[in-house]
Each structure stands twice: as C-alpha cells, then as structure tokens.
Amino acid sequence: METLAGRARDVQVVTKRRQEIKRTIFLSIACILLVAVILAAVIYFYVNHQYSSYEVKNTIALKKSSGMKCSAYQNGVLRYSRDGAAAVDRDGNEMWNGSY
Question: C-alpha angle 70/73/79, rounded to 5°?
Fold first, then answer.
C-alpha cells in the first residue's frame, strides 16, 4: 500500500511530465509558425521583386516589308503578311517559309 507521500510524488511527476509535453507542443507550434512566416516572406519578395535594369544580350535586324507583321513563335519570331509566313530563330536563320 502506498503512502500519501508516495502518491504526492507521483502527482508531481505526472504534473511535471504534462508541463514538459505542453512546452514541447508549444515550441513545436512556434517553430512551425516561424518557418511558415519566413517561407511566406521569401515567396512574397520573390513574387513582387522589381528589376531595376536589364542587359541586351543579342539583337537581330529583321527585314520587314510593308504590311508585314511579327509575333513571338517558339524560340524565334513569326513574320507574316498577305504573301505568306516565315519563322526565324534567335540567330536570324530562317526555320521555315511558306507562301499562300
């Protein structure tokens, strides 16, 4: 049979263990929230980044006649008019040409 002092010690051990569990849960939640806030800040600054300058790496002069229009196409430019269409790559080489 346990004494009253033995039961009191058991209650203290259980109470201390509960406090440790609560502290562990609190610290875990705090760490998760901290990581979430840091991740949200990184994503926010990445999405809302504003560039202040740019560098032109390459330019190509396209021969453009009257009535010709251009638009982006795959890795180059699509030139089209009433006479036909042609695709030009980034280096200025003609990929294909078609008339209609």
Answer: 30
Contact status, residue 90 vs residue 58, Cβ threshold 8 Å:
yes
3-class DSSP state of 67: coil
Per-residue pLDDT of the chain (100 residues; tens, 9 = 90+): 566 566 767 888 889 999 999 999 999 999 999 999 999 999 999 999 998 999 998 777 767 777 888 888 888 888 888 888 988 888 878 889 888 7
Q: What is the torsion angle, in degrees rounded to the nearest 10, for the CA atoms of residue 55, residue 60, residue 66 and residue 69?
A: -60
